[in-house]
Structures are given as structure tokens and as C-alpha cells.
Amino acid sequence: MSKRVTLIRGDGIGPEIMEATLRVIGALDVDIEWDEQQAGAGAFEKLGTPLPEETLASIAETGVALKGPLETPIGAGFRSVNVAIRKHFDLYGNVRPSRAIPGVNTRFSDLDLDLVVIRENTEGAYIGIEHTIPPNRSAAESIILVTRHGSERICKFAFEYARRHNRDKVTLIHKANILKETSGLFLEVGRQVANRYDDIEYDEVIVDAMCMKLVTNPEQYDVIVSTNLFGDILSDLTSGLVGGLGVTPGANIGENCAMFEAVHGTAPDIAGQGKANPTAIMMAAVMMLEHLDYDAEAQRMREATHKVVGRGEEVTGDLGGSASTEEFTDAVLRELGA
Ligand code: ATP
Ligand code: MG
Fold this sequence. Notes:
Layout: E1 3-8, H1 14-26, E2 32-37, H2 41-47, H3 53-62, E3 64-67, H4 81-88, E4 93-99, E5 114-120, E6 130-133, E7 139-142, H5 148-164, E8 169-174, H6 182-195, E9 201-206, H7 207-216, E10 223-226, H8 228-241, E11 249-253, E12 258-262, H9 279-291, H10 295-311, H11 325-335
Parallel strand pairs: 1-2, 1-3, 3-12, 5-10, 8-9, 8-10
Antiparallel strand pairs: 4-5, 4-11, 6-7, 11-12
Adenosine-5'-triphosphate is lined by residues 13, 17, 69, 71, 246, 264-270, 276-277, 280, 316, 318.
Pfam families: Iso_dh
InterPro entries: IsoCit/isopropylmalate_DH_CS, IsoPropMal-DH-like_dom
Protein name: NAD-dependent isocitrate dehydrogenase
């Protein structure tokens, strides 16, 4: 039976990298029916809103979206369209895998790293309750909100993710020695959840120590779970260990739907020039295929893309090559035997 997926090509380089990705998925043995929808600046121009009801209805129906980068137009009534979608569907789990690409030179090239950061995406330090205190903005304060429910579901998600992806260990990151209540609650709930998963190893590390360990011995980690702010920082750190944001995908997952995207933005400086690197969005598509239980085809797509990137000959300018988006994609298709 075919699986329906909402497709949002997005703004800036979005249409180019998405076209490349669709060509590659088209060469796989998968049965996907795309429901193409609009969002972002393009939607605002055509339909007068950056987030049409129809787009939300489609995601609600399919439960899965592959999304290009979106620009939030000024005066559209949204601070960020991306955040608005996450909020609308309560996409509480942000998943950021960092996997080494053989052949890509990094400081840890010899280690074959494969880490995943799972970040709580709806609470913590990012709830947006902040204000300054008079006179003259002499002070400012901000609220960190950690709930038992929010901690429980993200920790459970991390362990379920570990099981589903055959991973051995979950490491919980906290700062409960200083933030005794907020980080303390997260740690307490994390321990309770960990007790229910005898098959997965569990440990906990204080966030500052974790930063040091990640840049000295990153190979000892597997799945990492944390609250919003620490997760934000750690996920960029782990991206840096394997070659940067240009090759890193992300997923935002909720109870009823999942949205897959690249970590980078719309790159307006190179949009429309055929120069964009589609690797990150292709890796997001690989995550999406795994989510749809097309594991074998996901692996084929990942390996073909990694081969071309690792060889370094037919890669785009950001990776030091001179290939166009299309030439890179042709090389991936050749690798697939298509
Ligand atoms: P946004 O406001 O949507 O976040 P941005 O201007 O911050 O857009 P980013 O997409 O975050 O741009 O990119 C920052 C830099 O990295 C830009 O110079 C951009 O050209 C480059 N870049 C980002 N993504 C890619 C890509 N996929 N391929 C090539 N270069 C990229
Ligand atoms: Mg940006």
C-alpha cells in the first residue's frame, strides 16, 4: 500500500535541493504518494499566509512531512513558520543524528562516529517567558519550565528510539547539581524511565563535563537525551564532529506526526543558482524512509549519498568541489545503479 507524505519544497534553495531529493527517492523501491503543499514566503506571496490551513490539514492527515527550509516573511504574523508548525502539532522530540561520512575529513575521521542527540523541543529555557526589570532594564529574568509529563515523554522517546534503531546506550545530560529543581526533575524522571528499559544501557553526565568528553572521546556515546537549551547546543556540537550543518538532517516528532528537514536555512545568497548541496535534506529523507519502515531502501540511499560525498569529486562548492546540485544528484543516482 502506498504511503502518503506531505511535501513542502520551501523557500530559497528549498525547491532545488528538494527536486534533487525527489529524483533520488524516485529511483528507490518505495511506494510514496506525495501531497504537495505550500508554506513560508512562497505561500505568503501566493496565498496571503505563510502557513495555509490546507497545509496543516495535509500534515494532520498524512502524519509525515518532508519539508524544505522556510523563510518567515516580515509582517506575516508569525515569528517563525517553522516554530509555528512544531507548536501546532506539538512536535516535542527533536532528533539530530550525527554520523561520520567515510572520506570526509574531520578532526575525528578515524572514529566512524554515529551519535544521535534527542532534544526536548517544547519547554525548558525556550518557553519565551522573559522580561526586563526597571529602572533602565537594570536586570532581566527568564523562566525555565520543566514538567514531569514533558520529561517523561522525551526520555521515553529516547529509549524507544534506541530500541527501534538497535542502539545500545542512552546518556541523559543535565545540570542538576546547580539547577536542582528544573534539571533535578528531568534527571529524576529520566532515571525512572531508564528503569523500565533493561535492554538499553543508561548513564548520566553533567552538561559541562559532556562538552569536554564530546570533544575528546566522542566515540563512547550513542543516544544522548536532554532538555531544550542543552540539547540545542549539544546537537550543533555533534554536527561539528562529523562535518557540519551542510550534511546534517533533523526530525521533529510528536505523538501523531513527524516532520523531516535539513538543519540549514534557505541560503538566499546562493538560491536559484544550482549550487546548493542537497546532502542534508537527502539525509532527512533517509530518516523519513526509516520512519516509514523502508529501512533497506533508506540504507541504500544513505550509502549512495555518502559514497559520493566521501569521494569528494562530484560535490558542491560548500564541500570544496565544483559540481552543480544536478551533477551531484546524477552521481548519487549512478551510485544507486539508476
Ligand atoms: P535562514 O535565514 O533561512 O536561516 P541563512 O541566511 O541563515 O538562512 P543558512 O541557510 O543558515 O542561511 O546558511 C548559512 C550559509 O551557509 C550561507 O552562506 C549559505 O549559502 C550556506 N549554506 C546553507 N545551506 C547550504 C547548502 N545546502 N548548500 C550550500 N551552502 C549552504
Ligand atoms: Mg540561519
